[in-house]
């Protein structure tokens, strides 16, 4: 976890965001899982790399299919997720919720009948019922009771009877009663039409969500045909997925397109049994995610500064990278670096603040991570022996009330040493250290760093890259334990610093921290004070060194 946090792999403005070219959420999840699961099996890595190369040939064929799934993805996710109370209440309104009538929900015929009763008959009856009631009353009077009366005369009598209910309103009661009855008629008709439309909208929503599964099935069939043509079908597909596909095909036999007249009972029954098929749909979506994530890698590979990594089987760890770049800086005009860690497997990296030390070591380990997950690297060329252990010693926090920053550094270092101790000789480890033991005083920090570096150099199956300001650690190069490198910088005549961000052999003793304060616009008073104090300390240090030298000369003369 600290490894991915140190390298900002999944945080905001992260490496993952820079390389994520997936279309679907499931593709994004799968790509994240790949990046979180580095492997050191060369055969598996080469096979994965070959699959990605094959997919690049059919990128233009599969990409439109993924675009179609993306359009319906939210509908599929809605089907898969647990419904909240509001959604459940909304959906249940199209089913029979009465305990005595719940059995109706298992009958496609009855659900279909109830649907059309609510959608067609109810609003229609609300509109024609006043006229039907008059006609029925006339039939009873004329043909049952035998009262001889004409239809128009009967209507006038019927209307007088209705209007008499409002006679207390005065001489205008007839007009007022007609207005009231008309308003009641309109409200009743409008309400029944709205209820019908609301129910239809709910059913349309359910159909829309379910039809997204048909889009998924059609897309899978199309993708599988493409995969079969290029011979990589078996890499993605298996008997379990075939079973899931057949189950969904058999049970989602609803029309693909919305129609007002269709078997809505079948639609509602299919939706009510969705829980049974949730896992099957999820498995098929993960298949799409797998394809999407692999296709995303082919899109990254199309970038100018991205290459396929070469995986080597050697007895000792090896990294050889040319034109290395941080993944976030792809297609940006930044300086590229070369690094060969075949003979010089341990490196001390010197350089002043902001010279690019941290950027370089992060770039290296990130490219190793990309190689052992996505099989690509942000470089012109990269050869590696896969590593079983990837460690970072960056951004170490102290824990308030528990341990100091130095204790946290010791704890992290101890964990790493424990890991490489338990590592078999044929397994390799890569670790980057940024400012080893910089949290304590100079001499103890230097001494501890020297001891740790000396100890780590014993393990021939490990590569260690350490940035430091402890220049005396260069003694380790004379002892054959480490090689010294530096980040190139130059200082102009006017004092301005130019950062080249290029890796060079050697040691950098430039002290530019105070000049950086000036560049960042800190108060002149602070800068001048710092310069005076530094000059004073430098003169004292120089004086002590001369005195010690004179003492040694005098002793030798005696």
TrEMBL record:
Which keywords does this chain's UniProt record carry?
Answer: ATP-binding, DNA-binding, Membrane, Nucleotide-binding, Transmembrane, Transmembrane helix
Which GO biological-process labels does this protein carry? mismatch repair
* Domain DNA mismatch repair proteins mutS family per the UniProt entry, residue ranges: 344-535
Q: Which SUPFAM superfamilies match?
A: DNA repair protein MutS, domain III (SSF48334), P-loop containing nucleoside triphosphate hydrolases (SSF52540)
A single Gene Ontology MF term assigned here is: ATP-dependent DNA damage sensor activity
Residues annotated as transmembrane: 135-155, 175-194, 215-237
Report the InterPro entries cross-referenced here.
Answer: DNA_mismatch_repair_MutS_C (IPR000432), DNA_mismatch_repair_MutS_sf (IPR036187), MutS (IPR045076), P-loop_NTPase (IPR027417)
Know the name of this protein? DNA mismatch repair proteins mutS family domain-containing protein
Origin species:
marine metagenome
């Amino acid at each position: 976890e600290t490894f991915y946090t140190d390298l900002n792999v999944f945080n905001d403005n992260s490496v993952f965001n820079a390389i994520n070219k997936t279309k679907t959420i499931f593709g994004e999840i799968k790509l994240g899982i790949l990046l979180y699961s580095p492997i050191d099996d060369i055969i598996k890595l080469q096979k994965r790399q070959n699959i990605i190369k094959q997919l690049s040939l059919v990128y233009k064929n599969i990409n439109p299919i993924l675009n179609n799934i993306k359009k319906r993805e939210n509908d599929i996710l809605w089907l898969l997720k647990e419904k909240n109370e509001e959604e459940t209440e909304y959906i249940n309104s199209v089913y029979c919720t009465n305990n005595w009538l719940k059995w109706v929900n298992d009958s496609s015929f009855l659900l279909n009948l109830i649907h059309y009763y609510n959608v067609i008959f109810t609003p229609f009856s609300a509109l024609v019922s006043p006229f039907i009631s008059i006609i029925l009353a006339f039939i009873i009077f004329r043909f049952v009771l035998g009262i001889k009366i004409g239809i128009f005369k009967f209507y006038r009598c019927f209307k007088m009877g209705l209007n008499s209910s409002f006679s207390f309103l005065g001489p205008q009661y007839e007009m007022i009663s007609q207005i009231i009855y008309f308003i009641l008629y309109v409200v009743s008709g409008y309400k029944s039409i709205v209820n019908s439309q609301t129910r239809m909208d709910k059913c349309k929503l359910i159909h829309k969500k379910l039809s997204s599964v048909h889009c998924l099935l059609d897309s899978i069939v199309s993708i599988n045909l493409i995969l079969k043509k290029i011979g990589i079908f078996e890499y993605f597909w298996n008997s379990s997925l075939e079973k899931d596909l057949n189950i969904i095909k058999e049970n989602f036999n609803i029309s693909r397109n919305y129609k007002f007249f269709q078997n809505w009972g079948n639609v509602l029954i299919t939706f009510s049994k969705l829980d049974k098929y949730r896992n099957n749909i999820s498995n098929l979506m993960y298949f799409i995610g797998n394809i999407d994530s692999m296709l995303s890698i082919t899109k990254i590979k199309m970038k100018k500064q991205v290459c396929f990594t070469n995986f080597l089987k050697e007895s000792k760890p090896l990294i050889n990278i040319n034109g290395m770049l941080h993944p976030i800086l792809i297609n940006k005009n930044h300086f590229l670096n070369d690094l060969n860690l075949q003979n010089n497997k341990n490196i001390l990296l010197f350089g002043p603040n902001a010279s690019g030390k941290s950027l370089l070591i992060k770039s290296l380990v990130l490219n190793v991570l990309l190689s052992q997950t996505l099989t690509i690297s942000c470089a012109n060329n990269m050869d590696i022996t896969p590593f079983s252990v990837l460690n970072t010693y960056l951004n170490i926090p102290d824990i308030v009330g528990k341990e100091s920053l130095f204790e946290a550094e010791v704890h992290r270092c101890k964990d790493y040493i424990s890991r490489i101790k338990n590592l078999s000789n044929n397994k390799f480890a890569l670790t980057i250290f940024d400012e080893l033991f910089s949290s304590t005083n100079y001499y103890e920090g230097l001494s501890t760093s020297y001891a740790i570096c000396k100890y780590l150099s014993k393990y021939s199956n490990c590569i260690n890259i350490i940035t430091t300001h402890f220049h005396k650690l260069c003694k380790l190069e004379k002892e054959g334990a480490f090689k010294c490198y530096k980040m190139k910088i130059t200082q102009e005549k006017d004092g301005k610093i130019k950062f080249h961000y290029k890796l060079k052999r050697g040691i950098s003793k430039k002290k530019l921290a105070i000049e950086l304060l000036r560049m960042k616009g800190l108060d002149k008073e602070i800068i001048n004070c710092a310069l005076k104090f530094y000059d004073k300390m430098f003169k004292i240090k120089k004086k002590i060194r001369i005195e010690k030298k004179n003492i040694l000369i005098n002793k030798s003369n005696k």
